[in-house]
Amino acid sequence: MFGFKGRSKVTMIKNPIKWPNGARCAVVFTWDMDADSIIHLAHPNDADTRLSTTSMLRYGPQIGVPRIIDLCNELGVKHTFFVPGWCAEQHPQAIELMVKNGHEVAMHGYLHEYPNLLTREQEMFWTKKGTDAITKITGKAPVGYRAPWYRYSKHSTDILAQLGFTWDTSLMGDDNPYLIRQAGGELIELPSRWQLDDWPQFVHNHDLDFMMPIASPQCAMDVYMAEFYAMYEHGGIWLNCFHPFCSGQVARLMMVKQMMLKMLEKGDVWIATGEQVANYVREQVTAGKYVPRVDDLPFYEGRLPELAENYAPGN
Fold it and tell me: Is 146:157 a contact under the CB 8 Å cutoff?
């Protein structure tokens, strides 16, 4: 693992936002509480026969979430939990525990469906259904969103803006918070990174078609903290994607505790929920104190003309 001493003479992030209270970077810990929605999505006809994988996934809301919240209480920090609506309905006690302890509950679809495989009408239906399920339990409509498997669609920005969402973390286009815009509105984008996802490090399961070598917590922490030190050095945002069934296990959550302690020991790191960071960014933009980069979506419409069957010189 490596760290940095002092500021680099070369700023790799050219348009850093000024974080509150002199913080050198922002940190947002997020958790996707998918529970066993993903086994039903992957194997709709025989998920009921896959008991071992189901038990592994249900570990998340039943064991992982309470343990994570206990750790947050110990260290005095708040996290963001992304929850599919169906999972909230199946495990309301876990959601109530999040709310009771002051954490953000954000939206992650209804049954972890893939938005980019849906029509606009279908995506609107499932997004609203998931939103309503969370609102019914928490008493507050979610304002943050992560697309299941990061599969953000060409219609997602319009749909989310219409439903009152203010921020997203499905895209990976910057090191700073930025804006994503469509005809129906715009959202604050808090960028994700695959290297800050625990799936590549720890998930190994034949029912989920993901069979990779399992990393040690120390090796995974090296990857996560390298990203943190880079953001700390250059003023960006560190935002992870962990899963309670995975990194909520004892050895891995001990790793998470070590990470948070290292961050807190810096003294000039802002650890906040996604909603808090997005609200701050919006305030800075409105006040003219931060001019973010803007991505107008979608990037393309349909097949590239260069890929047409008759595309060749002379045709």
Answer: no
Token representation of residue 160: 């989310």
Shortest CA distance to 138 belongs to which of 79, 95, 107?
95
Which residues, at least 6 apart from 13, have a Cβ–Cβ distance to it below 8 Å?
175, 176, 234, 235, 236
Tens-place pLDDT, residues 104-123: 999 999 999 999 999 999 99
The pTM assigned to this predicted structure is 0.95
Task: Write phi, then psi, for 23 (nearest 5 degrees).
Answer: -65, 140
Per residue in 203-220, is it b (16+ CB within 10 Å) or e — as a string? bebebbeeeeeebebeeb
Residues in the chain: 315
CA nearest to 192, candidates 14, 28, 41 = 28
Residue (of 217, 274, 272, 275) closest to 247 by Cα position: 217
Sheet holding 237-239, edge to edge: 237-239, 25-28, 269-271
Alpha helices by DSSP H, the chain = 37-42, 51-59, 65-75, 85-90, 92-100, 120-138, 156-162, 199-202, 217-234, 244-247, 250-266, 274-286
Average pLDDT across the chain, whole number: 95
Task: Select from 297, 80, 276, 32 the least CA-distant residue to 173.
Answer: 297
CATH of domain 20-307: 3.20.20.370
DSSP states along 13-75:
SSS----GGG-SEEEE-EEE--TTHHHHHH-TTTGGG-HHHHHHHHHIIIIIHHHHHHHHHHH
Domain spans in the chain, listed from the N-terminal domain onward: 20-307
